[in-house]
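During the reporting period the student researcher (J.K.) took over the structure-prediction task from the postdoctoral fellow and processed the backlog of single-chain submissions. One of the processed entries is reproduced below for the supervisory committee.
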Amino acid sequence: MTRSERQRQTATIRRIFASIATRYDLLNRLLSLGQDQAWRRYAVLQCRLPRNGRLLDVATGTGDMALQALRQVPDTTVIGIDLTPGMLQRAREKSVDTLDEPLPLLRGDALDLPFSDDHFDAAISGFMARNVGDVAAAFAEQRRVVRPGGRVVCLEITRPQVWLASCFFWAYFYGLVPLLGSLLSGHPAAYTYLPRSVARFLTADELQATMQTVGLREVRYRLLMLNTVAVHVGVK
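J.K. obtained the following structure tokens:
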């Protein structure tokens, strides 16, 4: 993908997520059948955060992953970064409601993280990887900002490879998801984008290989929700 193509994709992603920011959490709960917070809890556990550690939440969205990390390890410093001001505003509002101090949030690009090398104990992302123009570059950036021995964790939707689960998956993502998303958000384009983004994204094995190509070690993954969700973990 060329630089101009990446810029166009970035603009498209920003526009899509800006349009659904106020309903994003509700739709996540409904479309994941109430399981998305459990997936986040599991993903945060894979970071193995030390006491007084530092975590970067890439594409933080409305801050659910960052807030989950603070519930699990309250003395962790968590920084969230995202492209979309509307999503960051929602994350800021939620953090003010639940934390003593607002969550540190930055507007920025996953392909050009504004942090020094070896700065964090772990980097995590939830449903980011299929929305970036260069998946390998995004993971290379996360690896760069994580200290040696630190972890890069990715929670993402994946295409199931088992026939029966695959039939259910495509019926759900191409049928029910666009319908519910359109009705509840008022923005049908955002929820027709979702199944398309999943269809063209890497398989779990391919994503594992991509993480390995940028220098992450011991890369493994676990499949959840009838093999439709994957949590990948790599070590710097």
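The committee noted the following: The radius of gyration is 17 Å.
J.K. will present the remaining backlog at the next meeting.
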